[in-house]
């Protein structure tokens, strides 16, 4: 076929797919029902695998929710959870997916699914991707692929995107964004750089990348590591005397203490905060079922704090919280990621339980409905895997953010202001360190006619935003506010 004819044919394919929505989407990937849900989906759902390495049999699993608005025009957003080693079903089940999950009444029954009024699919098409291979329902036929790192993960995810858009070509013209939280603060900018470089060098298909979104994201070990002490002091978790003494002995540098006196002070800090829920300091710390009956309603907190931690989510916020990012002070090194039961038994990551997601995704009928292959999971499905050997080999993300924003890509960095795992104080500091001119001075932003947090805008389309009263996984705590800033950012509107 002549070149002109090929261009015309491609244009016709895209036009036909857009005219009859998802006509080009593979019928075998369509999800028609989900166990636990009664009713019609508000938009079309697809799920399945994309093979990114035929020789190794490396296959990445995705769940794709089309927009409830205008799928042919609304942005396509790739969502990534962190860990490293955690499934993006985390975001689907607990945060901004199309359903709210109600815990099963008995051990033999399934969780009940209800439509989520604050789903991010209200305003966007969204791909939930299990990445890298070995995470969630993604797998490889060669176990060597479970030894990975930042660069390899970004490369594999880029390969996935190129192949995915070939399967769903009708979405190529849509604005494309990459989003994630926690350790996806590494995944997102490294992948965005891969995509941007591919665009610049003419890699096909050409993705319509517009920007990226990161929530409570790991960015730079020094900025993130130095954020804890000021956060703990500002939140009243350590005394003023201890704060001043620690600041004096550590000279304001709390990451990797350089003296025994600094290290001693840091031990005192950790002793004071060790029983606080690291993912939301307002929430009880769940170590077992008995704790729920004692503190589930925050009865020990003053009324103002109870209101600050309230959520409009119609179902209870889950017990906190698997696999967002390693707690500060425990940076990821090259080696096996411990299993979460091991971490729980050693109290390394307290306050955690993910029974609802595990109960649902370990059901055979659910696996069948979402086209999950038997070989993708050996034994029980876990939200966060223990089979990865992960090397954080890309270093600080600040250089990636500088490069991407300087090239015109829009960036939204948001933080739940009660997260102690990746405190907002670190994200606020590193965004300011970029040296960009402030174009939107620190101010409150509003949602539902209430102050929802604070925002500061910089030149080069870089925005830092806090969400008042939210923990590590913002859409889980503040779903209305999260949908508000998300939808406005995607549309390029002032938040």
Automatic annotation (TrEMBL):
Record localization: Secreted
Pfam families named among the record's database cross-references: Peptidase_S10
InterPro entries assigned: AB_hydrolase_fold, Peptidase_S10, Ser_caboxypep_his_AS
An MF annotation (GO) of this entry: carboxypeptidase activity
Major localization listed first in the record, in broad terms: secreted
GO BP annotations, alphabetical order: proteolysis
Signal sequence region: 1-22
Manganese among keywords: no
Keyword Ribosomal protein: no
Entry-linked SUPFAM superfamilies: alpha/beta-Hydrolases
Keyword terms: Carboxypeptidase, Disulfide bond, Glycoprotein, Hydrolase, Protease, Signal
GO cellular component: extracellular region
Recorded family membership: Belongs to the peptidase S10 family.
Job of this protein: Probable carboxypeptidase.
Descriptive protein name: Serine carboxypeptidase-like 20
Species per Swiss-Prot/TrEMBL record: Eucalyptus globulus
